[in-house]
Design a protein that fits this description.
- This protein folds into two domains: about 5-130, 3-Layer(aba) Sandwich (UDP-N-acetylmuramoyl-L-alanine:D-glutamate ligase); about 140-284, Protein-Tyrosine Phosphatase, Chain A.
- Helix content is about 35%, strand content about 25%.
- It is built from ten helices and twelve strands.
- The protein has helices at about 20-35, 105-120, 125-130, 160-175, 190-195, 195-200, 215-220, 230-240, 250-260, 275-284; strands spanning about 5-10, 40-45, 60-65, 70-80, 80-90, 90-100, 140-145, 150-155, 180-185, 205-210, 245, 265-270.
- A six-stranded mixed β-sheet has the order 1-2-3-4-5-6.
- The longest helix is centred in the middle third of the chain and has 16 residues, at about 105-120.
């Protein structure tokens, strides 16, 4: 694959069944960036720790919340309808953008999109108008509905950083709610490799409800076995002072939440498997 333009949001170890370590991941990104033509664009997150390790012939533009970023956000405001902020392009205020999605990660994604489209020559007002009409994507902090006053969300997050970022966004948008995260770890290899990082990812949750690990087709086919379990992860989360429960089945989780939900709760299902079914059961 040889792209003409490339956006790099962040670079972390994931898919440990393929990449052996972070250096292996960085090598893959470097190989891809090296393929960019001179007339192309590399859009990269300013605060990425390994940003300067990526070399390319293309023009480099940074985005982020740092004052050093070429494209950045300023005067950020969050609420339960989304967020709004000033878009600063190379020191000039392009305008104020209101997004129908919330969270720091969505702001960064918007800035990345602004950076590339701006470099491609689109007018600023056209870019902002298009983003203001964006209502989010399925399984990304997707509001499923309400149940007994509790609001139910679903998100595809299955990496520690994704989980942390999603929960931070939920906390900013709904500061008065009790956040109950329902997490289904995805693959034994990822859970084993990043177990400590997963245990640290739920700082913004008031309670974590864990489902059994969702094994990949590759793991099932190879007979992959691991000493790691969701029950073990629940114990590690408890050690952080956060309430954590483990239930072997999604039906048991749905029943537990059905019996304990209050009108001040925010439930968010997290994972790349079928954990979203819990939210669908509750709102139905």
């Amino acid at each position: 694959y040889s792209p003409e333009h490339l956006i790099i949001t962040n670079m972390e170890l994931d898919h440990p069944d393929y990449f052996k370590d972070l250096s292996d991941v960085l090598a893959a990104f470097s190989e891809l960036a090296a393929k960019l033509p001179e007339h192309g664009n590399l859009i990269i997150w300013q605060e990425e720790p390994n940003r300067t390790n990526i070399k390319t012939k293309a023009r480099i533009t940074t985005f982020g919340l740092s004052s050093e970023a070429d494209i950045r956000a300023d005067n950020i405001n969050y609420d339960n309808m989304g967020c709004d902020f000033d878009v600063i392009v190379e020191g000039q205020n392009l305008g104020r953008l209101s997004l129908a999605v919330s969270g720091r990660h969505n702001i960064l994604d918007a800035l990345a999109a602004i950076a590339l489209t701006y470099r491609l020559g689109l007018p600023g007002d056209t870019i902002l108008e298009a983003l203001q009409n964006f209502n989010g994507t399925k399984r990304r902090f997707e509001r499923l509905g309400t149940y007994n006053g509790a609001v139910i969300f679903d998100d595809y997050a299955h990496h520690p950083t994704e989980i942390q970022t999603t929960l931070e966004g939920a906390r900013r948008s709904y500061p008065g709610r009790r956040i109950r995260a329902v997490f289904q770890p995805h693959t034994f290899s990822r859970t084993e490799k990043l177990l400590y990082e997963f245990s640290e990812a739920f700082a913004e949750a008031d309670e974590v409800v864990l489902a059994e690990i969702f094994s990949s087709a590759r793991e099932k086919k190879s007979g992959y076995s691991s000493p790691i379990s969701s029950a073990k992860l629940a114990d590690l989360i408890k050690e952080k002072g956060i309430k954590a429960e483990f239930f072997p089945t999604l039906e048991e989780i749905s029943s537990y939440l059905n019996n304990t939900l209050t009108e001040d709760d925010l439930v968010i299902t997290l994972g790349a498997g079928d954990v979203y079914k819990v939210g669908l059961i509750l709102v139905s």
